[in-house]
């Protein structure tokens, strides 16, 4: 079991912090869905910003142990993270629009579905593009 955990440490931590990020995303969305009369897409956008901030710092520090030697490297990493998260945000918007507006499904149920898809895609982007070891050490 210890060997499995050691071998899959990044994936396990990603799932743990992904769960935290999902709780933030769904929690913020739910607050806006239940307590405002705003369109569900506004709640989706606000929830996205909150969860991306949580995701960046947890992924950077604990999941991928990304270090940087300059502020320029840090800002490039942050910019790359937000760029790819913006791509998956558009995936969220489309999933929510199809689920809520076209299929008339429950908004919170569709939020759960969209989070599963987005977590998987975000891991791929983070692991192989954003936090690659050789890219985080360069100026």
UniProtKB/TrEMBL annotation:
Coiled coil: none annotated. Pfam families: GtrA_DPMS_TM (PF04138). The keyword Ribonucleoprotein does not apply. It is a multi-pass membrane protein. Signal peptide: none annotated. The chain crosses the membrane at residues 12-32, 38-57, 78-100. Residues 14-131 form the GtrA/DPMS transmembrane domain. Keywords: Membrane, Transmembrane, Transmembrane helix. Belongs to the GtrA family. This is GtrA family protein. It comes from Pediococcus inopinatus. The lineage of its organism: Bacteria, Bacillati, Bacillota, Bacilli, Lactobacillales.
């Amino acid at each position: 079991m210890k060997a499995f955990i050691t071998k899959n440490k990044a994936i396990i931590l990603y799932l743990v912090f992904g769960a935290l990020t999902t709780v933030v995303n769904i929690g913020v969305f739910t607050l806006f869905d239940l307590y405002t009369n705003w369109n569900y897409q506004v709640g989706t956008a606000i929830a996205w910003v909150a969860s991306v901030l949580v995701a960046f710092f947890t992924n950077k520090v604990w999941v991928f142990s990304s270090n940087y030697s300059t502020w320029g490297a840090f800002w490039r990493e942050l910019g790359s993270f937000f760029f790819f998260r913006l791509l998956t945000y558009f995936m969220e918007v489309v999933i929510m629009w199809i689920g809520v507006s076209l299929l008339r499904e429950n908004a919170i149920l569709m939020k759960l579905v969209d989070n599963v898809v987005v977590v998987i895609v975000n891991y791929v982007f983070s692991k192989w593009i954003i936090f690659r070891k050789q890219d985080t050490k360069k100026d």
